[in-house]
Specification:
The protein is mainly beta. The chain is built from 1 helix and 5 strands. A 3-stranded antiparallel beta sheet has the order 1-2-3, with no helix packed on it.
């Protein structure tokens, strides 16, 4: 039942975690554009309603709705040490 209410789109990114990457999220009324290093990696017409919050974290755990409507969850392997550095953050 919950899978019929929750709508999402995902993309798997394969980035070098110890290199700087540029992430951009353009939230428009009719679509969302997600870019990494100036390359479009996801275009979605599932636009959220405001207000929104911004959360940044590193985590090797995931939970996602599968196409068959079931919940999938688990952990991914990660390096022994992880961190997030933010060089420039712009919200407009």
């Amino acid at each position: 039942m919950v899978a019929k209410v929750i709508r999402h789109e995902i993309v798997s990114l394969h980035l070098k975690p110890k290199e700087w990457n540029h992430f951009a999220l353009q939230w428009k009324r009719e679509e969302i554009l997600f870019k990494v290093n100036d390359q479009l990696v996801l275009r979605s017409h599932l636009t959220p309603r405001s207000p929104l919050g911004l959360v940044l974290w590193l985590d090797n755990q995931y939970a996602a709705w599968r196409p068959d409507g079931r919940l999938s969850f688990g952990t991914l392997s990660t390096p022994t040490s992880c961190w997030v550095e933010i060089k420039d953050l712009q919200i407009s």
